[in-house]
Design a protein that fits this description.
Layout lengths: L12 E7 L5 H12 L4 E3 L8 E8 L6 H5 L3 E9 L1 E3 L8 E4 L7 H8 L4 E5 L8 E2 L2 E2 H6 L9 E14 L5 E8 L5 H12 L3 E11 L2 E2 L6 H8 L23 E4 L1 H8 L7 H6 L5 E6 L4 E7 L5 E6 L4
Parallel strand pairs: 3-12, 14-15
Antiparallel strand pairs: 1-3, 2-3, 4-11, 4-12, 5-6, 7-10, 8-9, 10-11, 12-13, 15-16, 16-17
């Protein structure tokens, strides 16, 4: 059987999108893929339709590095609304309980936030994308099915109260720097329970994902305006380089005669690694001509073994 020809052009890099509200991450991905006329694309961690902000979209060979961005820390700015609980933990869900939050003060809120810093445990929402026997929990929830979920560890590096507005439905503007796998809706719900008034997320904006921030991001209207009357390749200047997904990892340069073996999947000796890296560290590998070859892992003997290789380099 003849191999089906892939639609689109080969293009490699990372587009940092400022995802709009009301659109799923996959819908945003497909729009970017269409505008770039890219053959291959993948995103690095879903944002709810309610949420906006940083969504790195990997094109071509960059899709090999999505896992590194999935595992990276994130930063969010969010509005927590107290006194109203919803079935989804955000403003898109049906109301399940109301309670007057007019007695909540900024001082009481600040005290209640303290236990949610550092390592915490969260029970994922039934409306999360976490899978149970291959099915996303939110699909089961929409069928009225609830399954038991185990608590998962997360780390909150920073949980700052930016503003507080008292009232029957008091509101707090917060900023959260957290590890992968942190559920902001669950954080709001758990904080609301601790205060005895319930809470949900009424707005959520991701301001950073790994090395990327809103300063790096472009919006879909900006992309559409730049694309009008032009070709997909005319947008390529917006792409971040392949190695930017692992930009916080040490860069290691190999001479061509050693790079030849690395390209073919063999562990190699990289003298600079002995001085500055430890076993298990991930490093970026470049040829001495400046070309990015991929990423490697440092072995116990100081050699570097390939973990992700860039094709044709």
């Amino acid at each position: 059987m003849a191999k089906r020809r892939q639609k689109g052009r080969p293009v490699d890099g990372i587009l940092v999108l400022d995802k709009p509200a009301g659109m799923t991450s996959n819908e945003a991905l497909q729009q970017v893929k269409y505008l770039f006329y890219a053959a291959k694309a993948g995103h690095t961690g879903s944002l709810d339709p309610l949420a906006t902000g940083v969504l790195p979209v990997c094109l071509g060979e960059a899709t090999k590095f999505t896992q590194f961005l999935l595992e990276a820390d994130k930063v969010y700015q969010s509005t927590f609304s107290f006194g109203l609980s919803t079935e989804t933990g955000d403003s898109d869900g049906e109301t399940v309980a109301r309670q007057d939050a007019s007695g909540l003060t900024r001082e009481a809120l600040a005290v209640a936030m303290e236990p949610f810093r550092g390592e915490i445990e969260q029970v994922p929402s039934m409306y999360s994308a976490l899978k149970h026997k291959g099915q996303p929990l939110y699909k089961l929830a929409r069928q009225g099915i609830e399954v038991e979920r185990e608590a998962r560890k997360a780390h909150i590096y920073r949980f700052d109260l930016l503003d507080f507005r008292p009232g029957e439905m008091a509101e707090a503007e917060v900023e959260i720097h957290c590890s992968k796998g942190t559920y902001i809706r669950t954080l709001a719900e758990d904080l609301g329970k601790a205060l005895g008034v319930g809470a949900h997320v009424s707005s959520l904006r991701r301001t950073a994902a790994g090395p990327f921030t809103l300063d790096d991001a472009v919006t879909l209207p900006q992309l559409e305006a730049l694309r009008e009357g032009k070709r997909g390749e005319d947008l390529d200047f917006l792409l971040q380089p392949l190695d930017s997904a692992v930009g916080d990892c040490q860069a290691v340069e190999l001479p061509e005669n050693i790079a030849w073996y690395f390209r073919r999947g063999q562990p190699v000796t990289a003298p600079s690694v002995y001085r500055s890296a430890e076993e298990g560290d991930i490093v970026r590998i470049f040829c001495d001509d400046g070309g990015f070859l991929g990423v490697g892992e440092v072995l116990d003997d100081g050699r570097v073994t390939p973990r992700r290789l860039v094709a044709g380099r």
